[in-house]
Each structure stands twice: as structure tokens, then as C-alpha cells.
Amino acid sequence: MSDQDQADSGEVPMMQKLLDNPFLLLFLGVASPALLYLVWGLAEIFTIPVR
């Protein structure tokens, strides 16, 4: 399917639908750093030497 055919049929690509959703972007922007810091913190805790 060419770009012209897709534009004529009015189909919106799936990725554009996802990126046009502000609540999804907000969730990803909050959840991804939170998950990263959670994993990082757990890794730090488990690497502390036991005395």
C-alpha cells in the first residue's frame, strides 16, 4: 500500500494513535523513570556487603 493510498483511505497508523494519546504519554513518562529507579534501588540494596 503506497503512502497516497493510505492517505486517501483515511487510515491512521497505529503508532500515531498511541502517540496522540496524552494520558498514555503521561503514564509512560511517569512509570518508566519510576520503574528504572525502583530497579536501580533494589540493585543497590542487594549489592551492599553483609557485615
Structure notes:
The protein is an all-alpha fold. It has a domain at 12-46. 75% of the residues lie in helices and 0% in strands. It is built from 3 helices and no strands. The chain is rod-shaped and about 70 Å long.
Gyration radius over CA: 21 Å
Label the overall shape.
Answer: rod-shaped
Helix content: over 70%
Number of strands: 0
| Mean pLDDT figure | 88
Instruction: Tell me the span between the first and last alpha carbons.
Output: 65 Å
Low-confidence stretches: none
Throw out a few tags for this protein.
single chain; 51 residues; mainly alpha; rod-shaped
Detail the topology: elements first, then pairings.
Layout lengths: L2 H7 L4 H6 L2 H25 L5
Task: Summarize the entry for a quick read.
With 51 residues, the protein is mainly α.
